[in-house]
């Protein structure tokens, strides 16, 4: 099972047990067979987004709340230190400011700022 699916499986079990729900009780609340939830928790099958939404409703959490306290994925080896630094800085901003930064980056990309900055200086002078 992929890493993300393992995290989701563990999170379902963690929230279910924190609320004191049995598999049967969560199944009743979510409108799903308890066996289906059990298979998802054990990683036998991957839960669909529709079923996850139903489980979240049964657990009385929204999807964002479900994922809200998950640890961020570990950066891949290919992730540059600059990218990691930018992400860490963005995490410190409010949602409104994060949105402003995202819009600014979108604008920069649309204007071709990234392509221009990658071009060697001598190439830009000859054009």
Please explain how this structure is put together.
This protein has 127 residues and is mostly helical. It has 2 domains: 3-68, 434 Repressor (Amino-terminal Domain) (Orthogonal Bundle); 81-118. 70% of the residues lie in helices and 0% in strands. It has helices spanning 3-18, 23-30, 34-42, 49-59, 63-68, 81-91, 95-110, 113-118, 121-126. Helix 2 packs across helix 3 and helix 2 (23-30) crosses helix 4. The longest helix has 16 residues, at 3-18.
Features:
127 residues, mainly alpha, 434 Repressor (Amino-terminal Domain), 2 domains, 70% helix, elongated
Summarize the structure.
With about 130 residues, this protein is mainly alpha-helical. The protein has nine helices and no strands.
Give the SSE layout.
Elements: H1 3-18, H2 23-30, H3 34-42, H4 49-59, H5 63-68, H6 81-91, H7 95-110, H8 113-118, H9 121-126
Helix pairs in contact: 2-3, 2-4
